[in-house]
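Need residues for this backbone.
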């Protein structure tokens, strides 16, 4: 696609610490629009989404944190994503914590179902985010989007109705895992989700793991939603995230994934999530995420400017 829609989603209600609401502003300050325009793309900034009030949802829950606020974001982002998916622009959702994917992924899956094409999802994250409302220990709802997207029960409160266009678990790929709760491991096995942890990446190389998934998406003529969490990357080079887990992917591994996605021509929507500028070191994580996005849209290794991180 040559037309891009930037959408701010300053969500922090799903996370365990404050700061992610500054994420969209950090991406703008780091020059995301300018970098994409330099690649010849037409970029429109849609501003920041405003959440619904979701007054039908309890304001306080003994287990689930900020449930009403997360439901409000989910509903607003679901509508925005569904509308953008039907248009000519490819959306980039600038987060915001990973709870934003409750709305974005559901909206794109609904459009895919209406178009008669399968929705595929590449989840680039240290965490599998497949906790349910029952299994979550922390109560932080940024750990639930994959479970919701797969249509697991108990999430009707988020949209105020049942999600009738779930993503098939067979169309999911979780890449970069290194922090998965026991109930999540059981669900991944039960549902047959493709999941690659860091040991698999170490032993096989990241390209060999990603290629079969992209080939499967291409054969099925699927739409591909990519959800990129800052903690996919090793915290030594991407510190601005509240859920740091040592041992993430390297600078080159992350760029290789983005370059392969560009070469595939399959990506139809993108989340950039969990950037917490309050935890950053002079903006270096925001700049890295912008550079990774540029790689997804065609910047080559030899085009990359010299930059100190």
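Answer:
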């Amino acid at each position: 696609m040559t037309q891009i829609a930037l959408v701010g989603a300053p969500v922090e209600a799903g996370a365990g610490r404050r700061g992610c609401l500054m994420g969209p502003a950090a991406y703008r300050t780091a020059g995301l629009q300018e970098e994409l325009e330099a690649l010849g793309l037409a970029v429109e900034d849609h501003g920041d989404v405003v959440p619904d009030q979701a007054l039908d949802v309890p304001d306080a829950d003994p287990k689930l944190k900020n449930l009403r606020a997360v439901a409000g974001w989910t509903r607003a982002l679901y509508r925005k994503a569904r509308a953008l998916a039907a248009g000519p622009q490819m959306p980039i959702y600038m987060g915001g914590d990973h709870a934003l994917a409750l709305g974005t992924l559901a909206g794109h899956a609904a459009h895919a179902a209406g178009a008669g094409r399968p929705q595929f999802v590449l989840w680039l994250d240290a965490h599998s985010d497949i906790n349910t409302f029952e299994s979550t220990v922390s109560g932080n709802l940024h750990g639930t989007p994959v479970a919701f997207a797969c249509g697991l029960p108990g999430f009707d409160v988020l949209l105020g109705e049942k999600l009738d266009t779930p993503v098939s678990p067979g169309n999911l790929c979780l890449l970069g895992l290194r922090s998965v709760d026991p109930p999540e491991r059981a669900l991944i096995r039960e549902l047959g989700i493709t999941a690659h942890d860091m040991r698999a990446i170490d032993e096989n190389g990241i390209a060999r793991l990603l290629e079969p998934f992209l080939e499967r998406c291409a054969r099925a003529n699927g739409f591909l939603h990519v959800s990129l969490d800052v903690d996919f990357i090793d915290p030594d080079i991407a510190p601005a995230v509240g859920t740091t887990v040592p041992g993430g992917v390297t600078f080159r591994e992350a760029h290789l994934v983005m370059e392969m996605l560009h070469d595939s021509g399959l990506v139809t929507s993108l989340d950039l999530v969990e950037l917490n500028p309050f935890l950053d070191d002079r903006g270096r994580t925001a700049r890295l995420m912008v550079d990774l996005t540029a790689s997804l849209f065609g910047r080559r290794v030899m085009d990359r400017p010299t930059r100190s991180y």
